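**User:** Everyone, produce a chain:

**Assistant:**
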Amino acid sequence: MGGRLALVVGSECAALPRLGFPGELATELYANLSAAGGWQPATAHRGPVLDPTADELTEAVNDAFAAASEQRATLLIGFVGHGVATAGEDFFLLARDSPPVFPNSRTAFHLTQGIRELLNGSMLDGLIVLIDACESGEGVQGAARRWTDLLTRSSGRMELLVAAGEGPAYAGCFTRTMVETFTGGLPLRGENLLPSDLVEPIGNTCQRQQPQHLSFTSGALSTTAGGDPGLWLVPNAARRRDAITGRPAAGFVDQLTRRLLLTDVIRERLAEIVETGGHRLRAVVGPAGSGKSTLMAMLIRPSLVDGLAIAPEYVTAAVFLTVGSSLESVTVELSAQLSHRVPGFRDAAHVVDESELDVFDIEVQRPLARLRAPGRRITIVFDGMDQLEAGTREHLVRHVAELTRVDEFTHVRVILGVRAGTGVAELPELAHLHRIELLPPSAEDIAAMVLESTRHQLEPTDPQLWVRWIDALLAETPTSFSAETPTFGHSRAVTGGWLLARLLIEVHSSITDEEIAAGVGLETLVLYRVHGASRAVDPDIAVALGPLLAILVAAGAGPVLPMELLESALAQFIVSGSDATLIRDLVVELGVLVTRSRAGTARESLGITHAALLPTLAAEAERLGWESAEANGAIAAAIGIAIESAVANGTQISQQVTEYIRGSGTRHYLEYGDADSAKELLLGLETVRPATNRDMYAAWLPSFTEACGPDHPGTLFVRHQLAFWRGRSGDMRRAVAELDAVLTDELRVLGPDDPRTLTTRLNLTNVRGRHDVAEAAHNPRSLVGLDDTAARAIARAVAELEQLLTDQVRVLGADHPDTLNTRYSLIYWSSESDEPARAAAEYERILHDQTSVLGPDHPDTLNTRHSIAYWHGENGEIPRAIAELERLLADQLRILGPDDPNTLATRHSIAYWHGESGDFDRAIAEFEQLAIDRERILGADHVDTLTTRSNIAANRGGQNMNRARTENEQLLADQERILGSDHPDTRTTRNRILFLQQQLGPDSSESNPSH
């Protein structure tokens, strides 16, 4: 449902002199709207409707309204041609066969009455009407009177733009200028062009016409710019060079830069930012409402500031951070912007690095490092560093420090926006930053902005009274960190600074001089806006205001909550009618309190404009009967519905919803008090990449600790998963220490027989065993000493697993999945290489039990099949091993997918045994394809990728020794860098090179692999 539908009509009138331009201009207008604006045809006819009869014109308009109403879509009606005004407020659009004198509703289209009738009972998600015709001023007057009551009852939104005047349409200047403006854009306007934006260029170009614009919002009539940002025409071509063009933050920047007042302080700070570009890290630090985000927006859109001597390319990429931002979402956003704006970045990003690096390292930092060049500068903006969840902020601060300190990033500059007093700017990791202080606007600045923006509506008897009152409001607003607000990103201010100015512009008509003299407070101003929204809409719609506020407050500041989740969450409170149309009707009325991204599209996201507004709006939602916990529960339920629907239908969740779930889903479950569901969500968000999982749990650990306490089972679970994935990422030493600490706490809190304690024992034994054996392999002692060390590690693992198995059988039973896991691990550690048949038989026994208990498609069952095939191969039964592995691969592709590490491992084993059977060509071909896939999925420096390359080189040795030597030398360099010179795999490669050189002769190479 939803969408944007357009009907464009160009019509001559046979009874009047031929105009010559309606068909041409209607075709151009439709082409621009569809190609640039994404408007779809509103009728079965694709393209403009040209020279229709009166019946055909009426039918086309009726069909367009019916289609848009059925889809609950936004509708645009455009007309180029003849029009005629007959009497008070009666205006007709003339068709080919219309009479030029005394037309009626049967012989022409009565604009005001016809649309009034169609609006009655329609379900449009907004209406835009563009009229380029003679005498259309009557249409404006009629619309103002006849449509207002219907739009009021339906809480509708509409934009009307006409070539106003009492005479001819003058060669279609109105539409020509509109199309030309679409092509060139408007440098001083926002991401998308609104109907109101066209008034000035049309008025300047069409000297004999006066364009007239009316905006209807729930029946409230306005002739000023603004209205619903979702009722836009086409993207603004003048914004193409901005870093955030087409990105989610564009709508937020529109809101920040609307009604911009450039004070001396703002100009000085902008100049300081540019002049201090030699500093690799700059931070704009100021209190809430001082204009930090607006300052960043002006750096992104420098054309808004006369005299600012930078181009839009000055800022290469920008991210406006929120409480819902995750490391993954920040990475995705930066990578998208950098790929679009930095030549070579996309190709550099395809060269993936170490698996132990996180997603930001791989997709942002490594590609940036490869692009260092003399004279190149890449500037990245991070606004709102104080807004992040603690764990995410810790990760991002580390990356910012590396980007601005490490030598390989000397071409990178970072600009931060940080709220004063939150402690972020004082973090030791950021001690090298250049601090730029931004003072909040004065009462005089705010009063000047308010009075200028409302000069036609507001004429205070005493302007100084306003200044004194605003000064008192600013004094009422806490703007810095204090003992009362001891955590990052949680100001108790209602609002302040420029946000106060925007709020005053919207509510000034509700404020009396007596209230100003009495000193009405900030909270009252916010509530004026809320109560005004409630009064402006139909009572049946107003009931949704409370739950809508509660849900938006729960989502947090910034345009963060995807519309599809907001609709679903609101449906938890309202039985019916909680669709995007109702939501947009309400949020337009809330004005400055709500910010929107990609407004009017299927990818729209919404949120409260500023964190300072959250406490007051939360209190108002509670007064209306909607608690914060309920709102968090509603969003959590919406997330669950989205996941269940995707699973049931075999579909993908949209990217923006996926990012929101990853960044905020766990928070909503925790704030709802459902730690178990928060745990399950994190498990469902795990990926095939160990480092990504490690960082996800690290980011959420502080939130679990704060919400649940350090000894809560949920917190212990997150600590366990963090340690587990840390080990899988390669840091086994630290993983062992963390698992040991978790086990100590679980024994104390949960007891020795709790299944979670038993699971931690299993994972600790496995990780410690692998770590100790690997350490033994790195030890450059004699081979006998190495074997003894490894043997002791294996013996310890076997002893611990035997005791664990005894405990699990006693507590859980012999057929419990956890017990089967321990049996599998025990076979793994106790299997002897000289008894492959016995090892295979042991695995076959556990396979029987796993199949019965877990089912044949369970990942553990599949892993055991792999082990059985391996030992059959070791026993000399290579054809049998290959056949078993090929059957296993088919099942893994069906169950796990092609990119699962276990699927890749099976492909590796198949290629290995083909090589062992003497089919070197087939083995090499399979290994080469596997190497490509492992590098893509795991990274070029993952140990599994290196192992695959090693197998390619080993199999190549009997086919092409020169090529094999080259591949081994390249592999050796990477192994020494990643694994170390004493690692067994490194030593194997070095020995293989020596062997190849001996076979090729002393003059075959100048390489020296000994170090």
